[in-house]
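Below is one record:
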Amino acid sequence: MLARQRAITGNINDCPVRDVLDVIGGRWSTLLLMALAERPYRFGELRRLVPDISQRMLTQTLHDLQREGYVHREVFPTRPPSVEYSMTDLGRSIFEPIRGLLQWATSNVEAVHAARKAFDEQHPG
C-alpha cells in the first residue's frame, strides 16, 4: 500500500513503476526479451539477431536484465566456454504485458507514423 501511495502522491524518486521500468524501458531490453521469449540463445546468436547493438551494449543490457531477475546466464564447461541466456519465470511474467504492447505497436505503427507526419507538417523545424 505504501508503494502505491508513493506512486499516487507523485514522489517519482520512490516510484515502484519507475524502478521496474528503468531497465525494461531501455533501448535494447525489449528486443532481447522478445528473442529470449522464443528460446534460450547464446551470446553470439543474440549479437547476430540484433546486428546494430554493440558487443559492449549487449553485454551491459544482458547484465542488467540478469540483475533484475529476468534473464538467467548459464556457463557451459566447454572449450572455449559457451554461455547461454534464457528467460526466467520472472522474465516470462513481465514479458506478458510487454507482448501486449508489441502487438499494439504492430497494429498501430501506421497510425503512429501518420500522426508524426501530420505533427511535423504543422510544426516544421
